[in-house]
Every structure is written in C-alpha cells, then in structure tokens.
Amino acid sequence: MDAAALAAKWHDHLVVERGLSDNTVSNYDRDLNRYVTWLEAAGLADLNQVTTQHLEAYVADLRRGVGGAAPLAASSAARALVVARGLHKFGVAEGVLPADVAAEVSPPSSGEKLPDTLSITEVAALLDACSEDSPVGLRDKALLETLYATGARVSEVLALVVDDVAGNEGILAVTGKGNKQRLVPLGSHAHKAIDAYLVRSRPVLSRGKSHALFLNARGGALSRQSAWTVIKQAAERAGLEKDISPHTLRHSFATHLLEGGADVRTVQELLGHASVTTTQIYTHVTADSLREVWASAHPRA
C-alpha cells in the first residue's frame, strides 16, 4: 500500500468520519507528511515494506534531526510516533496492511534527560578513590569496577551470586528485566577487582547468611541504598562535583563504547534494551561531543 495514498485516505477519514477540528487535522497532517517524507527517503514508499525496526529508526532520526531538520524534543517525537502508529492502525482496519508493525514501538519519554556522564578520566578517578586496604574498600572497588565494566543496572549487579563469577572466563551472565539473561564481557580490571574481593574481603564480611556476591558489613546482601552510598562517597573522595548515581556508570559505559566506535545495536545488546530507540539517546551525547570538538578545532567552524 502506497504510504502517501493511505495518508490521504486517513486524512479524509479524520475530517469526514471523525469530524476533528481544523487545527487538530493540521497537526496530524504535519506529522503525516513528515512520516511519508521519511519513508520515501528511506525507499519505503510501500507500507508493506515497513518493519518495527524502521519505526524505531524513524523515532531515532526525529530525535537526532537528520536531513537538515532540527532535532525534535521527546514530546514532539512521541506525538509524531502516535500519528505514524495511527496510519498503520488505519491501514490494518482498512484491510490494506496485514499487521500493525508500529504497535510495539515505544515513544521516547517526555522530558527525557540523561544524567551526567563521566569522562574516562573521571571514571578512573572514581575507581581509584576506593581504598584497597580494607574489606569494605575492596568490596567497593569490585562493585564500581563491575558496574562500569558491564554497564549493568545496579539491581542486576546486586542480584549476582558468587557462582555467577566463579570460573566465568571474563564473561558474565546478567539477568535483566523480564528475567531475560544476557552475556556481557567483564574486563580485566573488573575481573582482578572481583578476585581480590573474593579472596581478601568477602570471607571477612561473610557470616554464612547470603550467597550474594556483594555483602554488607553484617554479612547480608548489599542493598541498593548502600550501593548509592558507596558511589556518593567515592565521588566525594575523588573530588567529583557531578550528581553521580549507579546509573551514571551505566550511561558512561554506553557513551564511552559509542565514542570508541561500537555500533548502537551492540550497545543495545550489552545494556539489555528491548528497543534500539532507548539506546539511540546516547548518540545525542556523542554527537554533542563531536560538535564541540569540531567547533574548537575546525578552521571554518
């Protein structure tokens, strides 16, 4: 089904059968034209060719501002997705499309904003701020190294048990949302920190109460609140003034991978994102970095 033809048919349906106001229809038409233009540029004039992944790419492009267009705010991109979804839903209702490929595409959340991302130097300072002269210091070092090395959510790291890291050969199985498991590289620094913690620290902290990898001073599993405290205190010792949380390390992990040349799909897998649209937000950070470098270095910036 030709996208432009279906869009025109849906326009008539909104005006005649649904009786929407001129202003509402005008807003719909603007986003409809935006979507049809994007499809044509992507060689997807036939809506039967469009997949869920294409819709995700469309939202990501709206947020980035490709083709000379200004980047859209999350709320504007979400509205544009609603219109694209409406077109596909209308096509299914009319019997010209076999399935609604847009139904499962998640819009960017309104007011979407990344927390502060640490530079590689700042991450190193944070990790070096953990003392390795005490059982708690060794635990803190292993915790922070693991968070940054894997990009895992703090809840995922705190759910690890000792058997998860025993003989893992540098690959860690992390259980994420929906009980889905993914494999992530652990890295030599995190592996070394965990080994030191298991040999010199965990036996001191353990009271035989828990199989959790990371323990508190009483031998129980380390809580999310305690993990936040660990990071806040390390940031203070490192002299970092940014508002740092466990998620800051996750964001830094993703940003540093993309800046180092990793593709978005790989980072999506490592982070455990169900949709690449969620991961695409990190490309804005790297694009901003590129613009800053270009502006300061290019002779005709």
TrEMBL record:
Q: Where is the active site?
A: 153, 177, 247, 250, 273, 282 (o-(3'-phospho-dna)-tyrosine intermediate)
The main location class comes to: cytoplasm
Compartments (UniProt record): Cytoplasm
Q: Which Gene3D superfamilies match?
A: 1.10.150.130, Intergrase catalytic core
Job description of the protein: Site-specific tyrosine recombinase, which acts by catalyzing the cutting and rejoining of the recombining DNA molecules. The XerC-XerD complex is essential to convert dimers of the bacterial chromosome into monomers to permit their segregation at cell division. It also contributes to the segregational stability of plasmids.
Q: Which family does it belong to?
A: Belongs to the 'phage' integrase family. XerD subfamily.
Protein name (Swiss-Prot/TrEMBL): Tyrosine recombinase XerD
Its encoding gene is what? xerD
